[in-house]
Amino acid sequence: MDDRTFRTAMGKFVTGVTVITTQLNNEVYGMTANAFMSVSIDPKLVLISIDENANMNQYVDEAGQFAISILNEDQQDMSAYFAGQVKEQRNINFNWFNDMPAIEGAIVNLTCDVHDSVVAGDHTLYIGAVTDVFVTDGEPLAFFSGKYKQVNGTANVN
């Protein structure tokens, strides 16, 4: 199979949209990611995946900690900005949470210490030990087949 077919197939899986942030030498760094998952409840562990060639990979590795913000359905612009799709510099107001920069207005903010990391193919998988969590009401921003989607409604399952 070719890379395009594989990428298209993976895009058929609906994901939420997150922004991963960290702080290193008093500078805040962030990136949009949809490769995020819960790993364990006891201990509380999550996983993020970062391209080996992304600057963020080095920042998370050196900082040893990161925050995950699960974006709400109205934060498509925040996702685009941290995905590098918006070229002008913006002044982002971060919600400082557990001494980590998190995205204001996100429906979930998690702070994590790097528990472990594994290079897998062209990405590094970071397992984060969750140190704190903030949850608020709201609907998540979703991503499907290369497009942003909103979650609205409930499926009827019998």
General description of the model:
The chain has 158 residues and is α+β, with helices and mostly antiparallel strands. The chain has a single domain (3-8, 15-147), classed as Electron Transport, Fmn-binding Protein, Chain A (Pnp Oxidase, Chain A, Roll), CATH 2.30.110.10. It is 16% helix and 48% strand. The chain contains three helices and twelve strands. It has helices at 3-11, 55-63, 76-82, and strands at 15-16, 18-24, 27-33, 36-40, 45-51, 65-70, 94-97, 100-103, 108-120, 123-135, 141-144, 147-150. A seven-stranded antiparallel sheet has the order 3-2-6-9-10-5-4, sandwiched between helices. It has a three-stranded antiparallel sheet with strand order 1-11-12, with no helix packed on it. It is globular. The model has no long low-confidence stretch (mean pLDDT 93).
